[in-house]
Write a structure and sequence with these properties.
This protein is 27% helix and 27% strand. Helix 4 packs across helix 6, helix 7 runs parallel beside helix 8 and helix 8 packs parallel to helix 9.
Length: 421
C-alpha cells in the first residue's frame, strides 16, 4: 500500500473518531433519523486506548494478498465503521453513508433542489414521470422517457434508486443534463421508433408536503375535517396550522387525524403538533439509562379548543406518530381507532461525521404521559379495527352526535388564533 493511501485512511479514521466524540443531539424517532438540533457534549475519553494493531494487520494482509479489485479506501473505512456499529446489536444504532444521509435530510426538510419528476424502476432501467408544471415537464421530459445518463454518469439497472436520486438532485438554479430514450410514434402508429434526446433541466425548489386535508360530510350534516400526516418534517407544524385554519373556515367542527403508515420524523414537530390539540399537561417523557427523566409539556391554548378528535393508527404508525397518538390518548383528548402501533420509542443521538455520513446512537427511551413505554409494545387502540377493514367508517361513527359545545369551532373564536397566511 502506498504512503498516501495509508495517510488518507489514518486521517479518515481519526476524523471519524473525533466526530463520534463531538456530535449533534436531536430527538428523532424515525428510522432514518432526523436532523440534529443542538450541539452535544463530548463524552469522557476512554481510560485505556484501544489497540488497533489487529485492524492494521488485517488491512495490510488484505492489501498485499487479495486477488482481484479491492474496494477503495473510503469504502473500506465505511465497512469497518459499519461492522463496529452493527456489533452493538441495536436496530436503531446505525451508520449512514453520505449519499443516503443527504436523502434523509431532504425527506425531513420537506424540500430539495430537484427536477420535479418521479423515477420508476422498470425491467431495462429507470423511467421518468414528470410532475405537471415542474422543471422536468417544462424542459420537455415526457412520461415514460427511459433515463440513460445523468450528466456523465450512465444509468443502468445495477444503479440503485437512491443513487440516481442523489445524482438528479442538487443546488437550486443549477442545470442537470439528462439523456433519455423515447419511443416516438406517428399519427397512424406505423412508424414507431426510438430516439435519444439530450435535455437540460434547471433544478428548482421541490416541496414535499407532509400534511394533506379535506372536508367530509358524515351523512348526518356534520362537517368533519380529515387530516392525513405522512411524516413529521420541518414543515409539518406550519402545514398543520394551515390545515386547521382552512378546515375550520370551511365549517369543520370535528376532526380525524390519520397517522396510518406514518414512520415518524422530528420529535420537535411531534411535540408542537400534539400541543396544538392540548391545553395543558404532559406530552411525553424522556428517560435515560441512569433513570433521569426530562418532561415535555403542552402550552396553554389549542387551535381547535375541544373539538372532537379521533386518531387513526396502524402497525406502520411509529415513533413520532406514536408520541402524538400516545399523548392525545393518555390525556383523554382523542380516541385511537385502528390496529396496534409499531412500537418504536427509543431516542437517537445523531453525530454528523466528517465526510457527511452520520452515526445514530440509541441514548434514551420515550414514555407516554402515563408512563407507558412505546418500544416493543406500541399503542393499543381504544377501538380496534381488523386488519384489512377501513377504520374511517368507525371514526366517522364515533364522531357522530358528539357535542361540540364550547369547542371553539362552532362560531366562536378558538383559544389560540392561527397566524395569517
Amino acid at each position: 500500500m502506498n504512503q498516501r493511501k495509508i495517510l488518507a485512511v489514518i486521517g479518515l479514521l481519526s476524523l471519524i473518531a473525533i466526530a463520534l466524540g463531538v456530535g449533534y443531539i436531536s430527538y428523532p424517532l424515525l428510522h432514518p433519523a432526523a436532523e440534529p438540533v443542538a450541539v452535544g457534549e463530548q463524552p469522557p475519553v476512554a481510560q485505556e486506548p484501544v489497540d488497533m494493531g489487529l485492524y492494521w494487520e488485517v488491512w495490510h494482509l488484505l492489501d498485499r494478498d487479495f486477488y482481484g479489485d479491492p474496494p477503495d479506501a473510503t469504502e473500506q473505512v465505511h465497512s469497518a465503521v459499519r461492522g463496529l456499529v452493527d456489533s452493538f446489536d441495536d436496530p436503531y444504532t446505525y451508520f449512514v453513508e453520505p449519499q443516503p444521509r443527504e436523502l434523509e435530510r431532504d425527506q425531513l426538510r420537506g424540500s430539495f433542489g430537484g427536477i420535479g419528476a418521479f423515477i420508476e424502476p422498470v425491467e431495462d432501467g429507470y423511467i421518468l414521470k414528470p410532475m405537471r408544471g415542474q422543471p422536468a415537464d417544462e424542459a420537455g421530459v415526457q412520461d415514460g422517457d427511459l433515463l440513460l445518463f445523468v450528466d456523465d454518469v450512465e444509468i443502468t439497472s445495477a444503479i440503485t434508486l437512491d443513487e440516481i436520486t442523489a445524482l438528479v438532485r442538487g443546488p437550486v438554479g443549477e442545470d442537470v443534463r439528462l439523456l433519455v430514450r423515447r419511443t416516438v410514434d406517428d399519427a397512424d402508429h406505423r412508424d414507431a421508433h426510438d430516439e435519444e434526446l439530450a435535455i437540460v433541466v434547471t433544478r428548482a425548489l421541490i416541496e414535499t408536503p407532509s400534511v394533506t386535508w379535506e372536508i367530509r360530510d358524515d351523512g348526518k350534516g356534520d362537517r368533519v375535517g380529515v387530516i392525513t400526516q405522512s411524516i413529521f418534517s420541518e414543515r409539518s407544524a406550519e402545514e398543520m396550522r394551515t390545515a386547521l385554519r382552512e378546515l375550520t373556515a370551511e365549517g369543520a367542527d370535528r376532526f380525524i387525524l390519520d397517522l396510518r403508515g406514518n414512520p415518524g420524523g422530528l420529535v420537535t414537530a411531534a411535540v408542537e403538533i400534539a400541543d396544538m390539540w392540548l391545553d395543558e399537561g404532559l406530552i411525553l417523557i424522556e428517560e435515560k439509562a441512569d433513570g433521569s427523566r426530562t418532561t415535555f409539556e403542552a402550552e396553554p391554548g389549542q387551535l381547535t379548543a375541544n373539538a372532537p378528535l379521533v386518531v387513526l393508527v396502524d402497525g406502520a404508525s411509529a415513533s413520532a406518530a406514536e408520541i402524538v397518538a400516545g399523548a392525545l390518548q393518555d390525556q383523554g383528548r382523542a380516541q385511537l381507532v385502528g390496529q396496534q402501533t409499531f412500537g418504536k420509542g427509543s431516542v437517537q443521538l445523531i453525530h454528523e461525521l466528517s465526510d457527511k455520513s452520520s452515526l445514530h446512537v440509541t441514548n434514551a427511551e420515550w414514555l407516554t404521559p402515563n408512563g407507558h413505554a412505546i418500544t416493543g409494545s406500541g399503542l393499543t387502540p381504544d377501538q380496534p379495527v381488523a386488519e384489512g377493514e377501513d377504520p374511517m367508517a368507525s371514526a366517522l361513527e364515533l364522531l357522530q352526535g358528539v357535542s361540540v359545545a364550547n369547542a371553539g369551532v362552532d362560531g366562536t373564536q378558538p383559544t389560540e388564533t392561527p397566524p395569517a397566511e
